[in-house]
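Researcher: Structure for this, please.
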Amino acid sequence: MDTSDPDITFSEQGYCNHCTDYFNRITHLTYQGERSDRQLEIIVERIRRAGKGRDYDCVTGVSGGVDSSYTAYVLKKLGLRTLAVHMDNGWNSDIAVKNIKNLSRVLKIDYQSVVLDWDEFRDLQLAFLHASVPEIETPTDMAIPAALHKVAADHGVRYVISGGNYATEGILPASWHYNAKDLKFLRGIHRQFGQRPLRTFPTFGYLDEMYYKLVRGIRIVYLLNYVPYSKAEAIRLLQEDFAWQDYGGKHFESRITGFVHSYVFPAKFGYDYRRATLSTQICAGEVSRERALEVLKSPPFQAENIAREKEYIAKKFEITLQELDEILARPPKSQRNYPNDQRKLELIYRVYRRIFRAPSH
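Model: Predicted structure, C-alpha cell format:
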C-alpha cells in the first residue's frame, strides 16, 4: 500500500495501518483451526434446522469467480441444500457464464438467474459514470444483496451465504469506495444524470436491510472465514473438478468491473486496486512482498486491450467512443459532491454492529 490511499498512516517500523489492522484484528476473523471448525459445525446445524420443511437450507450468490464458486463447492461438501443465485446485470464475460453453468451442473445444485432490466440498469450505471465518482459499480453492489435477500425471502430461506472473506479481501481502503447501501447517494446521482425512471431496479438501503434481518430473520454467513481458504488451492480444485477458467484478474468475471478496476481506477483516480489485493495476500501468507512488488512493475492494463474494451463499453452504454473518453477525462469527484446519508449510515451501522455482534455476521 502507498499514499494513493490519502488516509494511510505508517508506524516507525514502516508498517501501514492496513497491515497493522489486519494482524491485530482481521487474522482473528479468518480460519483458526479447531475453534473455527466448531463454529462452523454450530452454524451449519443452525442452517439445517432453519431449512427444515423448506426446499433449500440456504441461498448463495454465484458470479463465476473464484470465491463464490468455491463457496458453492464447500456448501455442497457440507451437505447443505443450496440454491445458487446469479444477479445478471448484462456485463457477464463469456468465461463467467461457462463457469457458472459448469459449477451448477457438476455440483447438481439448483440455479436461478435474476436478470435486471437492461435499459434501466444501463441508464443508472451511465449516470454514475457521468457523476465522475469511483463508485461506478455501486448499482451492481446494491442489486446483488437485494436480489439474494428477495430470493431467500421468496423461498422462506433464512441464510444467505456470501463468498466475501477476510483471507483475500481483508484490506480495502475506505477512501477508495463509498457505502453501496446509501440510497440517497444513488438516487441523487440518478436524479441529476439519469434519463429513465427506476421502476424495477432492486434497491437495498438500510431500511431494506433492517426489514430482511429484523422482520424476515435473514442472516448473512461469510462461510470462507470458517474454512482454510487458499485462493491458489481453490483455483486448482475448480479447474480440475469443474473445468473452471481464469478470467484474467480479480472481479474480471464482469466486463465492466474489469475495465473499472484495471483502467478507470488508476488512470482517473490514481490508485491501483491490485495493491489492496496483493497486500491482503501478503498478510495472509499467500504471496511474498517481493513477488507483489514485481507484479506491480507491470501496468494494471495493456493499451491494446483497453482500446478494445473501450469500444465494447461505449457500445453497451449506447454512446460514442468520443463521449466515453470525454466522460472519463472529467475531474474526479466523490460522494461529498452529491447528496448522501454518510453520517446517518455510520451511526446506524455502528449501533447495529453492537447489537448484532455474532460469529455469523
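Researcher: Any notable elements?
Model: The first helix runs from residue 17 to 24. The two ends are 27 Å apart (CA to CA).
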